[in-house]
Design goal:
Helices cover about 30% and strands about 25% of the residues. By secondary structure, the protein is α+β, with helices and mostly antiparallel strands.
Length: about 325
């Protein structure tokens, strides 16, 4: 699939609640559609904000020959820059709080075997997948030096766009921007009031809305329906334990006052975990969440996301259901 989905990305910005007119600028960054929506008085800062995104892209890219992750995968040991070191600290934290379901060494599958995002995409055999070395325990960090154990391949795609949004938001604040919206693909940061509509994973239209008032809010969506080889059965979200594509949930959207990098990783992990574990994860992290199953049924956590079940022809599971009961609905046959 073409990695640049532009406005068809997981989250769509439809409108702003802020009184001052915002001007939108957009560019291709990290293999996808990136945008900034800023007040006219600060639109001159857009260039510096996109530059911040590109710093993250260079540090974390596994495609570019000068990318930090690409060099580490090739050389096995490098002196890492501050962006890569910070990102790897997120990798470790997410690995711990998700019980290993978020694993930045998933590249042993996504990069080495499936080769997602290249002209050489392939579906590996079961024996090839089982032999792949996947575990963050194979990443050694000593000061600024990062080393990979034999067989380990890094892929920071599960949080890289979130890192880019965090750097861009910091640049915006440094430039004096107090209100605006910044996004890379399905990862968005609201600076002040905004509205973000969640794309219908089955087609056109939207299925829900995230609204923010004062302060900052991170929003992240992870889904199995956009990037795959042949069919969504071989999508890019891989369970690091089963070493196969996720199929339990079609779409996961999270919203919280957290760094986008962390929220991005949490959404990625929730999309590949057993459903009940994903529910426990988002509850423990106090994020608003919207899970969409293959039949259109919806589970919502928190009050920060409005849902439109009629858009899917599905139903919203009642919040009074226990995690076990809700999980049983969400993982029924065909989901």
């Amino acid at each position: 699939m073409n990695p640049i989905h532009r406005v068809y990305i997981l989250l769509l910005l439809l409108s702003s609640l802020y009184a001052e007119e915002r001007i939108v600028r957009e560019q291709a960054v990290m293999g996808t559609y990136a945008f900034v929506a800023l007040p006219a008085s600060h639109i001159s800062s857009a260039g510096a904000i996109f530059d911040a995104m590109r710093r993250a892209e260079k540090s974390l890219s596994s495609f570019r020959s000068d990318g930090g992750v690409a060099r580490l995968n090739e050389k096995r040991s490098i002196k890492a820059d501050t962006i890569l070191l910070k990102s790897l600290s997120y990798c470790r934290k997410l690995y711990e709080i998700t019980d290993g379901y978020f694993d930045c060494t998933i590249g042993s599958l996504t990069k080495k075997l499936y080769r997602f995002g290249t002209d050489e995409e392939a579906i590996p055999s079961k024996s090839e997948r089982e032999a792949a070395a996947v575990s963050m325990k194979g990443v050694k960090i000593t000061g600024e030096i990062v080393e990979l154990d034999e067989g380990r391949v890094l892929d920071l795609g599960g949080l890289g766009k979130g890192v880019g949004v965090d750097l861009a938001a910091a640049e915006a604040l440094k430039s004096g921007v107090e209100s605006g919206i910044i996004g890379i693909g399905g990862d968005i940061r609201c600076l002040g009031p905004c509205r973000v509509d969640i794309q219908n994973p089955f087609g056109d239209g939207t299925v829900g809305t995230v609204r923010n008032g004062e302060g900052q809010l991170a929003v992240s969506t992870s889904g199995t329906y956009r990037r795959y080889i042949g069919s969504s059965r071989y999508n890019h979200l891989l369970d690091p334990y089963k070493k196969e594509s996720a199929g339990r949930l079609l779409s996961v959207t999270l919203a919280a006052k957290l760094p986008n990098a962390l929220l991005d990783g949490l959404a990625t992990a929730a999309a590949v975990m057993p459903v009940e574990s994903a529910m426990r994860l988002v509850a423990s992290q106090k994020t608003d969440a919207l899970f969409i199953a293959a039949d259109g049924s919806i589970l919502r956590f928190g009050r920060g996301i409005e849902v439109k079940p009629a858009a899917l022809g599905g139903f919203v599971l009642h919040p009074s259901l226990s995690l076990q009961e809700a999980a049983r609905y969400m993982r029924r046959e065909g989901r």
